[in-house]
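quick one, two chains, predict together pls
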Amino acid sequence: MPCPELRLVGAGDVIASAPVVFPVAKGAVPAAFAAAAAIAGFTGKRDETLRLNGHAASGNEARIVLLVGLGRTVREADAEAAGACGAATLFDYPHIAIDGRGLPRAFAVALAFGAAQRAWRFPINRQAAAGEDEPAIGRIDLVVDDPERAGKRWPAARDLNEILGFTRDLIAEPANSLTPASFAGRLSLLEEAGIGVEVIAGADLAGLGLLAAVGRGSANPPALAVLTWAGQGPGAPVAFVGKGVTFDTGGISIKPADGMWDMRGDMAGAAACVGAMLALARRGSPASVVAVLGLAENMIGADAYRPGDVIRSHHGQTVEIIDTDAEGRLVLADAVSYAITRFNPRAVIDVATLTGSIMVALGHEMAGLYDNDAVLAANLAAAGRAVGEGLWRMPVTEADREALASDIADIKQCLAGRLLPDASLGAAFIRAFVTETPWAHLDIGGMDLREEADTHHAKGPTGFGVRLLDRLIALRYEDPDHP
Amino acid sequence: MLDIVFAKPVSLKAGAVAILLAEEEILAGAALALDEASGGAVARALAVAGFKGQKGKTCLLLAPVDGLTRVLVVGLGKRADLTGVTVEEAGGAIAATLSQEAAVTVIAEGLAPLDAAHLGLGAVLRAYRFALYRTKEKAEDKPKLATITIQAEEASKARAAYAPLKAVAEGIFLSRDLISEPPNVLFPAEMAERCKALTKLGVKVEIFGPKEMEKLGFGALMGVSYGSVREPRMVVMEWNGAGKGKQKKPLAFVGKGVTFDTGGISIKPAGGMEDMKWDMAGAGAVIGLMAALAGRKAKVDAVGLVGLVENMPSGTAQRPGDVVTSYSGQTIEVLNTDAEGRLVLADLLWYAQEKFDPAFMVDLATLTGAIIVALGQEHGGLFSNDEELSQKLLGAGIASGEKLWRMPLGEAYDKQIKSDIADMKNIGGRHGSAIIAAQFIQRFVNSKPWAHLDIAGMAWSSKDNGTVPKGATAYGIRLLDRLVRDHYEA
């Protein structure tokens, strides 16, 4: 079970073997723990933890108690982080409890949600049954005074936890089982949430020349998936566009072998769009939103596209291929163009693990935000801040577009050479397929996977973008007085 | 330096002429008279070429009529959008296109005096050449342009507006010369020696050698210097222009001056290593800026500090793994000897704030390749702990045409320079390495407002561009001169 189950319980319902996470605000260590905390120097600072083995406090029988610091000024994000610290420390207990009594419900829920997200594990593909050889938290009980009162936040957090689990599983899934066709197949789950699912493949892809070119080298043919959520329409929808390269060898411009396995996650942008659609549908968003996913496998093959090829895009512009490993921008160009032509959206936001350059630029703390619209950019950055998914605005300029001038076609896909601002050039390429529509491009190349676990994050796919896109819709596109 | 002369408009019948034309405007005044004198040749040429005064476009006529050699019409774009940068680029286009004419007259009617002055600055900057080591250049290959006469209604006002800009140009030329010089000629002691020229402008110049710096405890800077037989220097340049009784805390500008960077023991690959002669462009910009401020008698107190070293591999060089003690007292584990610029800046920034208690510190450095990957060659990277200073710098960048883009700082990046053995290490991971470098430098800044400009993508231009010929750009001087002029002069 990659994603633990979340339950709301009363104080008496916690089983004896479950360790209890006890949140402590800075300087507010409860009297029962004061002596132990004083010896250990625990004061409740953010991210501080103190494990008490067999402490008989709060009327409980002797059990493991883990104090986690909330810091001085508690925000939801701090509570999430504290919950994550708890799960990171107690990762080998199948069942943990979090004592949320005395906290505002929003913080209590955030604690449990943070713990559940930190407890995510890779879906296990071993012979042994899950849990036999792999410690994993399977269940988290949030202890509250009134477990009968679910409120609004609790079901929302449970939904989001499940959706993020689904998204992260999808990203982690090996590319031999997750092909463009099987990715499209998984989308039937969205229909249960009321989302329209349409998969365009085979001869129907005619005209999407760039997407077809990228997928041509593979025995697993490409597809375009279109997800629609009507909300309380009418009116133009917001469009998400996701890069869904289910595996990226680099094609003829093949990647080095080292690290290539991570390329099974090169569909994280598309997965983020799927997760966001699910999230906003589950909470019944009144906004009209669509998502267009470009699904392809970039393989080496006898019929693969080549550097030097010129290909006609859905938009009509011809593209000179320089590097078959810069395939994401090709997939996105066609998907963005398709989304604009078909839906005439009020805004289009594409999400992609696009470049290594963005990692060099921003590392693994923030994703790159490129746009043609300052208001959309500000809204996205605000949504990112609200959910702890940082975006940093980066430049995409006329000079970048000019640098892509081709000798033989309307535009070159990228430049060859070293020390190039490839993330900006990639953004400039996609932008060339957007005319008037407000557009933003999130290059999540550095944010999709965590190479190492830390106190706040599990190793593996992050699901970056799901919360951010859902929050963007909630913040900006659901107010009937501000259409 | 190209001579810029301002004169009242008179009718022109001979020589080389440049005409400025805004979009959606027609030839008028002296330009119209010239067209009529040439029997309508100019208007015909514009019509044939489809030239409508678009920004960045030009139209050249050769010998339209007896006496006139070349007539160049330069587009300004829409007059409502006209900026100093556009006018400077127009000046640059004139200097580049008409470089084979000895004298050029520009019809600049309708241009405000300040814009006319900026036109002259643009021409001068574009006409810069570094020809010191050309011994066999044929006369016909050399540019001949010596004088540009700008005809403006308010010639005397334009002349007055040009005087301070000329001082800025002189600072830029000094800087471009320093950056262009080969590294066997320009090493730390030589570069320090050349700073003495600033004393003539009223700048107090103080030079520190290895003995003084060892004594002060500049362990970080000295460590970088150990590999080279050429001694390091620190040059401190003080300009007190605020006037008696008006002295405030000075503005501090700090430059990285690695006169050649082999990478040291962590040696760089051979390909492109020749570019490392301009690894002192930050220091070059600070020296040029001090010359510019003093040259135009800026009403400000400013101090410029440059740390000059050569980073060589040798038997005495510092090694990856060495721990050095910086002037601040903090210890640094040097894991990569090619991350040396930050070591130089660390000691200088600490010294600047201890010695001068400045109002702010801005450092300039060709610091990382990562900033080139992040921002290309259009924006310098701006890292700062101060919102107000950042906004002023971003504004000055747009106004001067030397643009900046703000980059992030944060605790998560800072964590990456945690060392197992010292207070910090001098590198983190490759990803986000420009930010990590800025975090390193920030550890040597107290609570002072501070900005770090990573100019690795901006110091050298691989092609002719606007007001910058191929080669050393001296990026940063116009930017910081503008910052001072707009916000800090008494």
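Residues 452 and 459 of chain A are 5 Å apart (CA to CA).
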